[in-house]
Amino acid sequence: MIIAIDGPAASGKGTLGRRLAAHFGLGHLDTGALYRATGLRVLRAGGDPSDPADAVTAAEAVRPEDAADPALRTDEVAQAASKVAAIPAVRAALLDFQRRFAATGPGAVLDGRDIGTVVCPDADAKLFVTASVEARATRRFRELRERGEDAIYDAVLRDMEQRDARDSGRTVAPLTPAEDAFVLDTSHLNADQAFEAALSFVSGRSGRP
Ligand code: DC
Fold first, then answer.
1. CATH numbers and ranges of domains, the chain
2. Does 111 sit in the ligand 1 pocket, CB within 6 Å?
3. Residue 31 beta carbon below 6 angstroms from any ligand 1 atom
4. What is the DSSP letter of 43?
5. What's the pTM?
6. Could you give phi then psi for residue 112, rounded to 5 degrees?
7. What is the pLDDT along the chain (209 residues), one digit of tens a residue?
């Protein structure tokens, strides 16, 4: 059983992915972490995330254990991830890993931007999780403040808009709902309500409660 979850930054897709994976006893892959790990490797090597040669060298060096690095969660790395993600050869280098993960064990939940459209077009259930840019920026802002970081709402909103534009506007695998995806807008839902709505869709599709 494969569940594909796509959507923009801070839409709630990661939390939803973890909960659905736990509910159905499946593995979970946050594919954004692979792009973040690529971006982080470029920054640490003193390279340019928009340079295809720098970015591809980094993508080929990414290892599963990179996903646990807390440094992946900074906004600088998020912007670098969004830049490397626009390079076709980077996406090709990370595709095999994602497909192998999906094919292992009893099935998997993958979340990202192009899971339902490119990585797992035959997924049993596809969700496109979204929310208004203001709702997503507010969530991100609160998260940063709770971590004790000195965030400014307007700056968080601007970064989010820039990343949305880059992720949706790129020519290769842009962020867009698959034709057969269930679009779930979480702007006015809490995490439990979003999970219930997603579970009801996936159960209906798969016949598994
Ligand atoms: O989900 P995230 O914020 O961790 O993703 C970081 C960046 O990686 C995002 O701006 C776009 C890119 N990405 C992608 O292009 N394709 C994916 N499947 C996952 C992430």
1. 2-203 (3.40.50.300)
2. no
3. yes
4. H
5. 0.95
6. 180, -140
7. 999 999 999 999 999 999 999 999 999 999 999 999 999 999 999 999 999 999 999 999 999 999 999 999 988 999 999 999 999 999 999 999 999 999 998 999 999 999 999 999 999 999 999 999 999 999 999 999 998 989 999 999 999 999 999 999 999 999 999 999 999 999 999 999 999 999 999 999 988 89
Is the Cα dihedral 17, 157, 174, 32 positive or negative? negative
Atom 2, ligand 1: residue with shortest CA distance: 32
Which run of H or of E encompasses 132? none
**Which tokens hold the place of 132?**
């208004």
Please tell me the distance from the alpha carbon of residue 8 to that of residue 59, in angstroms, as a whole number: 21
For residue 11, the SS3 value is: coil
At 181, the amino acid letter reads A
The encoded tokens of residue 192 equal: 């439990």
> How far away, in angstroms, is 7 Cα from ligand 1 center?
9
With H, G, I as helix, E, B as strand and everything else as coil, classify residue 207.
coil
Say if ligand 1 is within 6 A of residue 113 CB: yes
First to last CA, the chain: 13
